[in-house]
Amino acid sequence: MTAIDETLRDAVTAGEIPGIVAAATTASGTIHAFAAGSGAVPDGAPMGMDTVFRIASMTKAITATAAMQMVEQGKLALDAPAGETLPELAAPQVLEGFDAAGQPRLRPARTPITLRRLLTHTAGFGYDTWNADLNRYARVREVPPARTGRLAALGMPLSSDPGTEWQYGINIDWAGRMVEKASGLDLETYFQRHIFGPLGMTDSGFVIRPDMAARLASVHARKDGGLVPLQAALNPPREFYPGGGGLASTPHDYLRFLRMMLNGGALEGARVLAPETVALMGQNHIGALNVQVMRSVLPAMSNDFEAFPGMDKKWGLSFLINTQDVPGGRAAGSLAWAGLNNTYFWIDPTSGIAGLLMTQVLPFGDAAVLRLLGAFEQAIYRAHRR
To answer: Measured between alpha carbons, how far is 78 from 82 in angstroms, rounded to an integer?
Structure first.
């Protein structure tokens, strides 16, 4: 057992987290994998590379891959008005505030929504978890969260004109709807046929099969200094598959996706993206705009979150991009993102390393998990930087 494995195990032993899986890969194959703890406290099944996690917003990278496949085929275009594909996006409204009676004040957006803006979180959509005005709007108009898979969840207004600011939100859910319209397939079917099947990601999907359910980790909430497993429906009824978050997957499967990205869009003879598309996805697509601090208005769901404080961050299609080298870790220009239940990944094309760290804890941006993520990344680069 390495020193970093001991650190991860000790965090479980100390009760900081219920269980954890950390793994890293190069383009050639896995270079480190470690699991500790269990999928549920106090007596869940041991965690492993085949443990099934609810990966939440790590779904976004999969949806972006599907969208870029549609772009490659000429069925979608990055800069065409999204309303040409989805009439629901043809005349977006911007929330300007609330009147004296507490009712929303809306106006027409001054610029169009495009697929590029959706993939970069600059279309103007937000999440009620990190936007107080949208949170208020959702309560006033009784709009359900996107994670419910109810179509009414997509009925949120914009909080800014498209192209004017970066704001994390339901943008990729709309990108997923564009993929469905362009392909003629629902997202579950599309992912299985065109991403998961070719990449050998056999334990990934919106629908959790019985054999996956037996390996499904529970999401835990921090309460009174301890960890409490939360109850969640296995396969809740959905009116649409939310491309912004809703997949289940395993560390083994997601590592295959990361390896495909390191390989320029192919894995073991299966090509899902052209090399030039992968390169395009890793470029800054928000220009002079910067990724902003995500300030929580729902503390049970998320802490305030900022990756690499003090550093300008950009966004690709659809990944966070660090603009400077991380001392002892990933190089500038690396790609990354995360899931609400404290799952994280990075892809470093310069160093040829990708990694993930997965647990199931709320709220997001958990200090203990972020500490372990940093320690794991540092250890991987000490051992494997080329």
So the answer is: 9
Q: Where do the domains of the chain lie, and which CATH numbers do they carry?
A: 3-72+186-384 (3.40.710.10), 82-180 (no CATH)
| Beta-carbon count within 10 A of 39 CB | 23
Catalytic residue, candidates 127, 137, 168, 381: 168
Give residue 25's region: left, alpha or beta (phi > 0; psi -120 to 50): beta
Give residue-wise pLDDT tens across range 167-176: 999 999 999 9
Sign of the torsion formed by the C-alpha atoms of 207, 210, 211 and 215: positive
* pTM as predicted: 0.97
- CA dist 179 → 68, 188, 195 (Å): 9, 11, 13
The share of the chain scoring above pLDDT 70, in percent, equals 99
Q: Would you call 159 a catalytic residue per the annotation?
A: no
Q: Active-site residue 313, yes or no?
A: no
Peptide bond preceding 57 in cis form (omega within 30 of 0)? no
218 a catalytic residue: no
Catalytic residue, chosen from 38, 57, 159, 204, is 57
Cβ pair 133, 143 in contact under 8 A = no
